[in-house]
Amino acid sequence: MTDLERTRERTPVPKDWTYAPAPEARDIVRIEKRYGHYVGGDWIEPSETYTTISPASEEPLAEVGQASVAEVARAVDAARNAFGNGWSEISPSERAKYLFRIARILQERSREFAVLESLNGGKPIRESRDVDVPLSAAHFFYYAGWADKLEYAFPNRRPRPIGVAGQIIPWNFPLLMLAWKIAPALAAGNTVVLKPAETTPLSALLFCDVLRQAELPPGVVNIVTGDGRTGAAIVEADGVDKVAFTGSTEVGKAIQRELAGTGKRLTLELGGKAANIIFDDAALDQAVEGIVNGIYFNQGHVCCAGSRLLVQESIYEPVVEKLKRRLATLRVGDPLDKNTDVGAINSKQQLEKIQELVASGEEEGAEIYQPPCRLPEKGYWFAPTVFTNVAQSYRIAQEEIFGPVLSILTFRTPEEAVEKANNTPYGLSAGVWTEKGSRILWMAERLRAGVVWANTYNRFDPSSPFGGYKESGFGREGGRHGLEPYLELE
Ligand code: NDP
């Protein structure tokens, strides 16, 4: 008998494989009891506070500040002083040095950030560890590289920084959206006042420690926390030269109205209702993985989520069958468990919005499917959901649900696919699955979407510009294009 056979005999394969949780240790990250606002390189005591929680357990995590108009004004003053007193004047390669340092520190402290992001936001640790944090570091690395090459990026146009950037970000990718905002702003020589979302402030507050470690001059980046009122105060503050906003179309429109005629620059990255289009010649198993990644990644809290699936009629049945089978294998539960595929919904408010839209889908006549899965009792949860029998006019096919809910529609010809895909007020992203390169190009030319993925979905890279058309906003983030909103170009 060989050694291998002997070992096998001693450790027989269990007949019934049971699942063993693999929780990530949470003691790597130290959460303070109370946080102030980070202004001028120091913590200032907040006049008012609220409690931030873990959406997976409703456990309180920390007290954080609710910044008032006066506190926002203090942060803007600090950013103005830093802009006028050195930051905009230091040599570009010196600026790059700070950005490189921030990127390196994020890499070194990646586990800490991943755990905190999953605790406060509810996303699976697998995603924060493998996507959010590495991409955030990659963004700082990428823009560090541009800081001393702006003249090459925009030849003959004398690029100069704008001044103070007021930046407002959402709760779906807290650290990554911070990186998308801060890295290009600093590379271009601006200073920043940033507000994270009310429900997910903790990674931005931990990031202040990275800024200290990197010895970034005081006031170059200021972080104030709070709800929509704090965001509105940033938009309205005198001394802010440019506003960058990511969030809902509704708030984006309000900001645009507020800023009309003020001369402040604006970029908006808003909602989406992307079509993920599967042709009958696509590799179906790969496409099913793409569908799952397109809508269940980050619980569907993704502006570019592939929330409308368009399937060519001839392959409708096998696609739906394979998809349902795949859904039954998704693990929903503790975000800190390394096996988890779908984590917690970010807030009670968002859960209620998803429930309301799903109920409307059933009332309008769509057929719902949810795989059997046991949801935790505490916290905010929603099972991965598929709707079939969906008409284009249903709310679930028109409105952004921002949750793990997929609506399936069919088409017969490529022309019909384009028409249905473009039948939305949004225009952020789309996916095309086919083996024909010529068809990919044909579709990409006709889809009114800022990003078109081919035979993949939700793939991001700092060098690739991202942004929308129509009600999905304007301006680009990422790539050389992402520098432009932060520069005066003559
Ligand atoms: P919001 O647009 O309200 O939030 C985005 C950011 O803007 C947050 O930091 C928010 O603060 C802030 N904010 C809120 N009101 C104002 C204001 N009047 N002026 C300036 N800033 C403001 O999105 P919600 O969190 O309310 O989510 C609502 C819906 O929006 C979701 O269901 C989803 O459909 C969509 N959404 C889309 C996102 C995207 O990336 N496209 C991201 C997030 C949401 P606070 O956190 O306190 O509300």
Which radius of gyration do the C-alpha atoms yield?
23 Å
**The CATH architecture of the largest domain:** 3-Layer(aba) Sandwich
Q: What is the CATH third-level topology name of the largest domain?
A: Aldehyde Dehydrogenase, Chain A, domain 1
Unique bound compounds: NADPH dihydro-nicotinamide-adenine-dinucleotide phosphate
Give, in spatial order, the strands making up the sheet with the most strands. 13-14-15-12-11-16-17
Determine the mean pLDDT. 96
Largest sheet: 7 strands, mixed
**Which structural class should the secondary elements be placed in?**
alpha/beta
| Large-scale geometry | globular
What are the SSEs and their pairings?
Layout: H1 3-10, E1 37-39, E2 42-44, E3 49-53, E4 60-65, H2 69-87, H3 92-108, H4 110-121, H5 125-146, H6 150-153, E5 160-161, E6 164-168, H7 174-187, E7 191-195, H8 202-213, E8 221-223, H9 228-236, E9 242-246, H10 249-259, E10 265-269, E11 275-278, H11 284-296, E12 308-312, H12 316-327, H13 348-364, E13 367-369, E14 385-388, H14 395-398, E15 405-411, H15 414-421, E16 429-433, H16 437-446, E17 451-454, E18 473-474, E19 487-488
Parallel strand pairs: 6-7, 6-9, 7-8, 9-10, 11-12, 11-16, 12-15, 14-15, 16-17
Antiparallel strand pairs: 1-2, 3-4, 5-19, 10-18, 13-14
Helix pairs in contact: 2-9, 3-5, 4-5, 5-7, 11-12
The structure holds NADPH dihydro-nicotinamide-adenine-dinucleotide phosphate.
NADPH dihydro-nicotinamide-adenine-dinucleotide phosphate binds at residues 168-172, 195, 197-198, 227-228, 231-232, 235, 246-248, 251, 254-255, 270-271, 303, 350, 353, 400, 402.
